[in-house]
Amino acid sequence: MPIYNKLVRDNIPAIIEKTGKTFTTRLLNDEEYITEINNKLGEELAEYLETTTTEDALEELADLLELIHAAAAYHGSTFEELEKVRVEKAEKRGGFNERIFLLEVEDD
Fold first, then answer.
1. Which domain covers residue 59, as residue numbers?
2. In Å, how far from its chain's centre is CA 97?
3. How many domains, the chain?
4. pLDDT of residue 65
5. HSE of 62 in the Cβ direction (CA atoms, 13 Å)?
């Protein structure tokens, strides 16, 4: 029996159950949960970096976005509040749309 020991999406147990397979799960406490969200963010980011097609990239970005939603909720916030912070930062510092790559800054 494969051992996974990782955070999975909420419907995964039901999906496994429909296949007739047996499985074991447990609920994580708060500290374990944020640790596993962070682990999963790293896993999904690595998968995104390895993609070779737009379709695969979008799948991995969707997974990252789902984890960002979960992390925001863990921190007592909503995705809408997170988006507001993102917009405020973009208004002050800009986004990344212009593809600017900083080479160096003269040090006085």
1. 12-78
2. 21
3. 1
4. 97
5. 7
43 C-beta neighbours (distance < 10 Å), count: 16
Flag whether 37 is in a domain.
Answer: yes
Give the single-character DSSP code of 96. S
What's the pLDDT at 28? 98
Q: Is residue 34 part of a domain?
A: yes
List per-block mean pLDDT (blocks of 10 residues) for the chain, which spans 108 residues: 94 97 97 98 98 98 98 97 97 96 93
Q: Is residue 60 part of a domain?
A: yes
pLDDT at 75 (0 to 100): 97
Angstrom distances, CA of residue 3 to CA of 6, 23, 43: 9, 10, 17
> Where do we find the tokens 């749309």?
97
- Asked if residue 9 lies in contact with residue 42, where contact means CB atoms within 8 angstroms, the answer is no
Residue 4, in any domain of the structure: no
